[in-house]
Amino acid sequence: MILSKDEAICTILEFSKNNIVTSPTKLNKLLARLNLDFIPIDIDFTLNKYGSYNAELADLNENKYFKVEPYILKTGVNSKKFILKPEGKAFFLNSVKPKLDKILTKEDFEILQNKIRELSDMRADEISDNEHKKLLVDTEDRFKLEQKVNVVYCDMYDLYEISKSLPENTLVDISLKALIEYCYHLIKFIKEIRFKHIPEGYDYEGYMFDYYFINNINEIIPFLKQQITDVKKDKIRINKYYQYFVNSVSERNYPFSLDNPNLNKLLAS
Amino acid sequence: MSINNEIYAFDECSILHMCKLVIRDAFKIFFPKDFIAHKNSKQLNILLEHLREKNKVKAKFVPNENFDENLVRSYNDLLQKQGNVQILGTSFKKEILEQLEKFYEKLSEEFIDIEKNEDIDSIKIFFINNQKPLKKDPKVPEDDDLKIISAYCDYNSIGKKYFITEDEHFWGYDDLIETEYNFFVIKEWECDKLVG
After folding, report:
1. Residue segments in chain A with a per-residue pLDDT below the cut of 50
2. What is the pLDDT at residue A57?
């Protein structure tokens, strides 16, 4: 499961205050933010001094789901806002919501909705400031980042070893085991290949998904530990995490992907 | 409910066996083809296409409490002698099960539901008294199979009733089911013979 670009934009506009996002930068930040909530979206993000960035989002044109309205800021600068159309609302309810329902409980859906609404009221720089701190992308956080990669790797190694003896009797058993297996190999790939030599300076070439994955795998470790021991497993949340890690990236932009025909060589290296 | 036409009911596993599974690029190296299909998939799909063309009634039985189990069983059947995945084995399994689940969900829309019958006491005794030397254990149909037999027997249809299955608990008793319970059991691998 992955949300297309239009589906992701409609989600953001649906959740934003008055169904409006007041600038392309803000839309960019809010879409990137979905990654921190484990929502897989078909949009690439690279690292920018001011946060996750996708150049194409700055040139979005109006379509059947949302309007793009130019306006002039008090400072005299030209900007444009994005407004959800009734067709976009219907599209969200009929196409996007059923997809989200497979990965979000009712409670999680409301939490996400409130979070995006709250963020949509903040300034763009406030949104990215928070994101940078969380993801440890700044140069002064290099040591913390390196430590975090090592700790997450060690934790996932332990979980992966434990998971080998878990049963595969039901779909949810298999999903949990697959999630642990995938995350272990993903963090191993990040540690040993992507971040083998973490650049000392600012990572201008950085691909945001490395950072999202480190942060997000770290976030789910307590959940995974709990799920291994729980008799009744959290099917929806396990599926949400699995869908995020497996489907957020594709071979065209990230080598650790089930769409990469040479993944076996990558895992062997 | 009554049907004025023939009705073709399918075992849950038989519906799953219709699926042609796409292998994601990372796993293709472990398989001779780009897709996996059950050994009876061809026959099942010939019948399915025919039923669609002729607008015939297709049915499945609900509730399907054993769906998870059937999914995993179908996976095991499918992967028999078809490839040996050497990386991310559980993720591969999850991917295949997810495809099967989606396939079932989508195809189910074409099928009417027949409620399984909970009252199986007398039918159970009948099969115990008429036990046959099947290869499969137990030698008599299990409770869930009996709920299907009972429900399909009671289901009103003016036309013939067919039940397509791979399960020996049904085809091993096909003669008795036909005479006592009034429907025809069709072996999955022979189901294309129903076409013309």
Report:
1. none
2. 81
The answer to whether the Cβ–Cβ distance between A251 and B93 falls below 8 Å is no
How many other β-carbons are positioned within 10 Å of the β-carbon of residue B138? 11
Residue B132 distance to chain A (closest CA, Å): 30
Q: Which amino acid is at B83?
A: G
| Low-confidence spans in chain B with pLDDT less than 50 | none
Q: What is the pTM of this model?
A: 0.87
CA dihedral B15, B16, B20, B22 (to 10 degrees): 150
A264, A266, A267, A269: which to substitute to probe chain B, counting the most B Cβ within 10 Å? A264
CA distance A166 to A173: 8
Q: Encode pLDDT of A108-167 as tens digits.
A: 999 999 999 998 888 877 776 677 788 888 778 888 889 999 999 999 999 999 999 998
Give A-chain residues touching B16 at CB under 8 angstroms: none
- Answer yes or no: do A185 and B71 touch at CB < 8 A: no
Contact B25 A251 (CB under 8 A): yes
Give the pLDDT of residue B54. 92
Q: Residue B83 has what pLDDT?
A: 67
**DSSP three-state, residue A41:** strand
**Preferred mutation among B31, B68, B91 to probe A, highest tally of A CBs within 10 A:** B91
A253 touches chain B (CB under 8 A): no
Chain A: give the shortest CA distance to residue B137, in Å. 20
pLDDT recorded at residue A126: 78
Residues A112, A96 contacting (CB under 8 angstroms): no
- Nearest C-alpha of chain A: how many angstroms from B38? 20
DSSP-derived secondary structure for A71-115: EE-TTS-EEEEEEE-HHHHHHIIIIIHHHHHTT--HHHHHHHHHH
- A162: tokens are 């434990």
